[in-house]
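Input structure tokens:
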């Protein structure tokens, strides 16, 4: 598979990193030689310096022979024109990141094949969609969906009163009160750990769970966490992200308030929103926060264009009584640092969210989607099992998967289940595979590469699959 990427900023950089680890042939186009040099040093990929809509640059990069062309520069017009040129050149699939051009869509992703572009991703809507999930699950600190959005990957902090504190991974898995849920990863300080049976959860850990979405309420009740969505929400910043988020949250019937420093923008928001109180106020003004009752907020979300404003406003909101705070941080490297501050419950990078969303729609052979756990060498793959794979030969226990490899969930027809060692995989299944990158060659031989015909057993056990 050959992928050409126009734009090697933070979004492009994250996409390159994920695809490079999959052995994909990559060529990156950017006008900044320093950015391209960093990519070559870190990933040893081919790069072409120049304008993303220069025909000579296109030809030099071989865009016409690409299976996938991604246009993720900082300019919408450039991305759209580049995709049109890639379409004319013969690239098989085209994806554009478009921030400010309004196509009349309220979705983060459009697959309407606009002008030959297969997918258009709006990063503002990506952020708004992600934050809406967190509003509905205010105790979670990260959230993603897989297997046709029927399985959730949710991160939850383990507090002082959590029944999981001091409990082993095995004991949790054997608890009859929790079904169709497993522990996928444990973050402890700066370390990420794959779960082992005897590993004990500690207070202060951040635990990633894989759960059927219908079981999330039961999981949160078991963890003694609030299951109701946030009811009173403050949004600091009435820009494009704040507006997109407010528009989504209005549909949930919340007590919703936007703090916006610009009077002109306040007037525009008041005309565009129906059920949101728009306040002309500075989110870093302690008197304004107190006067507007931020102490009663279930969730305070700061999404201005300035990282310092987002951090300071969250610190103040938490000091004055807001239950949870969320801060947009453009500088991706600052996210793990801010996680150490209890006053900011969820720092997040919009560019990282956009890269994550892009990778969900990059189809590479049998790879349906990809998720990289933050600050670790652990990744999650959504894979379809095709006929002839080694994993069909016996039970999961018989595969003797190495430590650092875990099958989190299986979709078979309309059925979703969390597998155990006695389960078998069959062609047509889609699985969530969590692995450390050092095991990629092993898992590829089991789940991705068909066995030579001479090695296949003469007779296979017939396994019934669910209809659908």
């Amino acid at each position: 598979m050959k992928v050409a990427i126009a734009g090697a900023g933070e979004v492009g950089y994250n996409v390159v990193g994920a695809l490079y680890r999959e052995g994909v042939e990559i060529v990156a186009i950017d006008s900044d030689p320093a950015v391209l040099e960093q990519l070559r040093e870190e990933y040893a990929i081919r790069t072409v310096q120049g304008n993303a809509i220069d025909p000579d640059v296109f030809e030099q990069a071989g865009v016409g022979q690409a299976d996938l062309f991604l246009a993720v520069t900082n300019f919408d017009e450039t991305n759209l024109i580049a995709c049109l040129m890639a379409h004319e050149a013969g690239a098989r699939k085209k994806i554009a990141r478009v921030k400010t051009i309004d196509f009349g869509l309220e979705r983060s992703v459009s697959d309407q094949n606009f002008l030959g572009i297969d997918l258009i991703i709006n990063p503002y809507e990506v952020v708004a969609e992600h934050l809406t999930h967190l509003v509905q699950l205010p105790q979670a600190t990260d959230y993603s969906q897989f297997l046709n959005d029927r399985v959730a990957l949710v991160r939850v902090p383990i507090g002082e009163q959590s029944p999981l504190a001091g409990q082993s991974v095995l004991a949790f898995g054997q608890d009859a009160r929790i079904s169709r849920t497993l522990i996928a990863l444990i973050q402890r300080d700066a370390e990420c750990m794959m779960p082992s049976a005897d590993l004990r959860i500690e207070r202060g850990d951040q635990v990633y769970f894989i759960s059927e979405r219908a079981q999330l309420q039961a999981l949160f009740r078991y963890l003694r966490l609030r299951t109701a969505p946030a009811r009173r929400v403050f949004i600091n910043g009435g820009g494009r992200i704040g507006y997109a988020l407010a528009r989504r949250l209005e549909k949930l019937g919340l007590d919703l308030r936007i703090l916006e420093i610009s009077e002109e923008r306040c007037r525009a928001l008041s005309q565009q929103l129906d059920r949101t109180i728009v306040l002309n106020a500075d989110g870093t003004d302690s008197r304004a926060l107190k006067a507007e009752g931020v102490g009663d907020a279930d969730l305070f979300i700061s999404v201005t264009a300035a990282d310092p404003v987002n951090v300071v406003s969250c610190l103040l909101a938490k000091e004055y009584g807001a239950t949870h705070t969320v801060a947009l941080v453009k500088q991706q490297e600052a996210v793990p640092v801010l996680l150490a501050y209890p006053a900011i419950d969820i720092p997040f990078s919009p560019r990282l969210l956009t890269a994550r969303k892009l990778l969900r729609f990059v189809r590479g052979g049998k790879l349906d989607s990809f998720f990289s756990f933050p600050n670790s060498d652990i990744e999650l793959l959504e894979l379809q099992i095709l006929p002839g794979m080694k994993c069909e030969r016996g039970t999961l226990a018989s595969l003797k998967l190495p430590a650092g490899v875990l099958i989190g969930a299986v979709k078979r027809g309309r059925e979703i289940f969390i597998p155990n060692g006695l389960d078998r995989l069959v062609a047509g299944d889609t699985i969530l595979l969590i692995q450390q990158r050092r095991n990629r060659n092993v898992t590829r031989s089991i789940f991705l590469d068909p066995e030579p015909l001479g090695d296949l057993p003469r007779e296979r056990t017939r396994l019934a699959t669910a209809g659908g």
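The first strand starts at residue 2 and ends at 6. The first helix runs from residue 10 to 20.
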